[in-house]
Design a protein that fits this description.
Length: 519
């Protein structure tokens, strides 16, 4: 019996295409390792001693310790927000590949300074911001590069490899910290080794990138069609004169001509971007789509997803996990749960259940987890009348709630805003709308990561979970009413989903025969 390769995985049959995807997807490592490996390394004894983060030194100033910890953790995210904005300018000026390489170099130089900052608090903050510039730029250029080399029918699958690599590195980072904590002495070498590890795979990918080329779409936009056709044929593993290559290349060149016609001013990218932004606000249909995406990004960040990820080791200890090593193992398991369910989401659930249903199911799970954690932190944990068995059961349920939260975050708003932002807009306003949403994403992520330690101190833990639960509840109402299902809807017909009254958007749909006709 002969086994056939599924249509959605045909790209993997071409070794060069697979090599390109894996190489470029390594651009997600800086962000993933920062959320896992670096955030956990901040709790290593060697790092806390070097940068004055020991609680014994801040007995009378818990807020000061929370501020110092939050600054060290969050300043990379602040740099990433700026890097994402800068990359939108560089992508068209330098090209996708050279922008990717430059971002890798900026991040690597920042990481190098960070590793050898040797207890100098100011230098560490500078290194965190500088490295964040590169990490943030990579979060924009990496998905863009992948989307431009992927066949249309598997674009979602190929781009999702970016998130899979990110979450795999995130989970691995916790286990690396665990190994360092039990096998290495608490000296500077310990945290330096942990924080420098991502330099190896990113460095390998950087040198491997010199065997790659620009994306066919970018080459065509730069009036280099012969190079674009040759690269497209190599990516597809076909002859440049084959019918399949001719058909796909004709579509690329047609889209490039339409884009130039829309811009009307190829010498001024700023003007065309401003014109596109004004169109998103002047056209009522576009305006609804734009602000729905902004609302989705706002809700996704303020449900606490990245706040929990960055401080998950401390959260596990608050939930009853004893010992730093055990909390690191639990954090690694948390990362694995996110990885597994994100893979299930991106490679199955999203096209089976749909975007809307996944978002609402995910928010519901997040809400349930936050409500229980608020009850545990505010009542059950501090109850002096409860028996040891009852407290143990409540603690186990709190730990389980953290994993329930991970499942909800992974199948819901962890990935949907990225996907929604690429599919609900027409080509001429997609770049500007996506740029605005990613900028909002990064600035809100910085805010959440920065204030989370302070929220735990000033709101006594339980108040933070109650706040996040309220955001989840509001999100269920807002997205439940405003968010239409886009599964299977051609981009050319997205406007039909946003016609009519906004409060009836939840039941907007396009008939099956109309979808097939649109495709």
């Amino acid at each position: 019996m002969r086994l056939s390769i599924p249509e959605s995985w045909r790209w993997a049959a071409n070794p060069f295409h697979t090599f390109v995807i894996i190489t470029i997807a390594c651009g997600s490592i800086p962000k993933g390792y920062d959320e896992g490996g670096y955030s956990a390394s901040v709790r290593l004894d060697s790092f806390m001693t070097d940068f004055n983060l020991l609680s014994s030194n801040w007995t009378n100033n818990k807020t000061g310790l929370a501020n110092r910890t939050a600054n060290i953790t969050s300043f990379n995210v602040l740099g990433a927000a700026l890097g994402a904005l800068i990359s939108l300018y560089l992508n068209d000026r330098l090209g996708r590949l050279r922008s990717w390489r430059l971002a890798c170099l900026v991040w690597a130089s920042g990481n190098f300074i960070q590793v050898f900052s040797s207890g100098i608090y100011g230098l560490l903050l500078f290194a965190r911001i500088w490295g964040g510039l590169g990490a943030g730029a990579l979060t924009v250029v990496t998905p863009l590069y992948l989307s431009e080399i992927a066949p249309a029918r598997t674009r979602g699958l190929v781009v999702s490899i970016y998130m899979v690599v990110l979450l795999a590195v995130l989970a691995l980072g916790f286990f690396i910290n665990y190994a360092a904590s039990i096998h290495m002495a608490p000296t500077r070498t310990q945290y330096r080794l942990v924080q420098s590890i991502p330099l190896i795979p990113v460095g390998v990918a950087f040198f491997a990138s010199f065997f790659l080329s620009e994306t066919p779409r970018y080459l065509v936009s730069q009036h280099r069609p012969d190079e674009g056709r040759a690269i497209l044929a190599r990516l597809r593993g076909k002859d440049p004169k084959s019918p399949e290559i001719k058909e796909e290349f004709a579509l690329i060149t047609t889209q490039a001509r339409l884009k130039e016609a829309d811009n009307n001013s190829p010498s001024s990218a700023t003007t065309s971007n401003w014109t596109a932004f004004k169109e998103t606000q002047s056209n009522p249909n576009y305006r609804q789509r734009f602000w729905l995406l902004m609302a989705m990004q706002t809700i996704s960040q303020w449900t606490g997803g990245n706040g929990i990820t960055y401080y998950v080791s401390s959260i596990f200890e608050s939930a009853g996990v004893t010992g730093n090593a055990t909390s690191l193992v639990s954090s690694g398991a948390y990362g694995i749960v996110k990885l597994v369910f994100t893979m299930a989401f991106t490679w199955g659930l999203i096209d089976y259940l749909g975007r809307r249903r996944c978002a609402l199911v995910g928010l519901s799970l997040q809400l349930a987890a936050h409500v229980y954690l608020a009850c545990y932190m505010g009542i059950l944990r501090s109850s002096s009348n409860s028996s040891e068995t009852t407290n143990k059961s409540a603690s186990d349920a709190a730990i389980a709630s953290i994993f329930v939260y991970a499942v909800g975050w992974s199948v819901g708003l962890c990935t949907i805003p990225y996907l929604y932002g690429t599919e609900i807009f027409p080509t001429r306003i997609r770049n500007v709308s996506y740029a605005a949403s990613m900028s909002l994403h990064w600035f809100f992520q910085f805010a959440v990561v920065r204030v989370t330690p302070n929220m735990f101190v000033s709101l006594h833990d339980w108040g933070a979970y109650l706040f996040w639960a309220l955001v989840c509840f509001v999100g269920l109402i807002v997205l439940g009413v405003w968010m239409p299902e886009t599964k299977g809807v051609p981009i050319e017909q997205m406007g039909e989903l946003f016609e009519g009254k906004w409060y009836l958007r939840w039941r907007s749909q396009i008939k099956k025969d109309e979808r097939e006709h649109g495709e």
